[in-house]
TrEMBL record:
<dbReference type="Pfam" id="PF17775">
    <property type="entry name" value="YchJ_M-like"/>
</dbReference>
<protein>
    <recommendedName>
        <fullName>UPF0225 protein CryarDRAFT_4010</fullName>
    </recommendedName>
</protein>
<dbReference type="InterPro" id="IPR048469">
    <property type="entry name" value="YchJ-like_M"/>
</dbReference>
<dbReference type="InterPro" id="IPR004027">
    <property type="entry name" value="SEC_C_motif"/>
</dbReference>
<dbReference type="Pfam" id="PF02810">
    <property type="entry name" value="SEC-C"/>
</dbReference>
<feature type="domain" description="YchJ-like middle NTF2-like">
    <location>
        <begin position="27"/>
        <end position="122"/>
    </location>
</feature>
<dbReference type="InterPro" id="IPR023006">
    <property type="entry name" value="YchJ-like"/>
</dbReference>
<comment type="similarity">
    <text>Belongs to the UPF0225 family.</text>
</comment>
<dbReference type="InterPro" id="IPR032710">
    <property type="entry name" value="NTF2-like_dom_sf"/>
</dbReference>
Length: 129
């Protein structure tokens, strides 16, 4: 069994795999971790399906030359099972095909739409409902 890319130290099947298979993430952080794992596994359809409808791009092309190496959750504000919004600050480390190191540092906003967590945007501005 493979270790989940999100850094939880659990197997993929007991961590992000169920969300990628259609299950609902219980918290904003769990959704953030599952989205990171989707980037690492090249699951563009999952990323689009977990994006807020008002901020979601029409299409998403993932760069196959980027290898996602590590995820660090820096901070969370709200985003629990009883919340309707939340913020997750993270750092994601990647390597390009040319070997360059890249760090994506983002303070992402999340909202609950139709009972499911969705990614709104990479800023901590007003949350969409």
């Amino acid at each position: 069994m493979s270790v989940c890319p999100c850094g939880s130290r659990r197997t993929y099947d007991e961590c992000c795999g169920p969300f990628h298979g259609g299950g609902a993430a219980p918290t904003a952080e769990a959704l953030m971790r599952s989205r990171y794992s989707a980037f690492a596994r090249g699951l563009a359809p999952y990323l689009l399906s977990t994006w807020h409808p008002r901020t979601r791009p029409g299409e998403l092309e993932l760069d196959p030359g980027i290898t996602w190496r590590a995820l660090q959750i820096v901070d969370t504000v709200d985003g629990g099972p009883g919340d309707d919004s939340g913020i997750v600050e993270f750092r994601a480390v990647a390597r390009t095909a040319g070997g360059e190191r890249h760090v994506q540092h983002e303070r992402s906003t999340f909202s609950r739409v139709g009972g499911r967590w969705v990614y709104v945007d990479g800023g901590s501005g007003p949350l969409l409902r």
